[in-house]
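Bench notes, afternoon.
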Amino acid sequence: MRHPTRLGIALAVLIATAGCSAASGDGSAPDAKPADGASAAASSVTSCGRQVSSSEPPKRAVALDQASTETLLELGLQDRMAGTANLKTKIPARYEAAYAKVPVIAPKIATAEQLRAATPDFVLAGSSDLFTKDRAGTREELDALKVPTFVSAVDCPERNQAGKTPFELLFSDYENLGKVFGAEKRADALADLQRAAVAKAGAGASKVPQGADAPTVVYLYSVFNGMPYVAGGTGLPSEMSRIVGAKNAFDDVDEDWPEVSWEEVAKREPDFIVIGDLSERGRPGDSAAEKRASMKGHPVVSRLAAVRDDKILEVPGIELDPSVRSVHTLGLLADGMKDLGYAR
């Protein structure tokens, strides 16, 4: 997310293995297993306008954030990872064994020195801001060292020109990484399963009031120094809202996670509120309970019908940023709208 307390990205969800038998009750796949042996074929994909070419599948990949780490673990590529960095929450239990095999090169954001010490042959990140001179180094600098780099298509500045939704851009990441690592079957299976999850979440959208009568929602991500950060029009929650037939109350703000005032939240009069629970991060105001208390204690926000009538949904905060587990929160949103009476 694009504010000072940006998180990595999260997990607990719908993911499949190529050739797995059946998904578990919550739609998630069995525990991650090593990918099939990589083919020796060269690959070339496009990542944020740059051609990423490899003569053979990477053997020492480094993931610079949690989103990228968990994607590689879901694809069963832990044996071809030389490092990970910048995890903001606990690794889910289903990935613990695989994650234990991966060296942590930096507990927070990796520096160029820490990255180079890992001798990677491929580096990936969920956001381009990790590839800067004062962090891991620019993509140009790593290219000069013959180290290919990959940035999630969701963060690519040119993403809107592609005409794809944020979820489709996320799925294209899986497919491109599958090509790079020679794990196409598993990557395609993951993308197909999550496409089905998106379709399922949107199945009831036509039964939700449309147009001016569509229910509006405010996504409360974090409270930093007493000020709320909410989902703006460029983040994944706006797409989630569209899929389930709701409207993000801050769609008109051209940011992912803008800081706003509590008075502005009240002015938008949302029909319901989605709280991102960031309890694992452990900062003041991160937990869902603290956010509820902030709203109920505010002289203006407390008078909102959504607060008075407890029309509040709680979801894992980290899943509101694009990641391999974002479809899980999309499903929670769809189910929550039914529980609130907005969909049949």
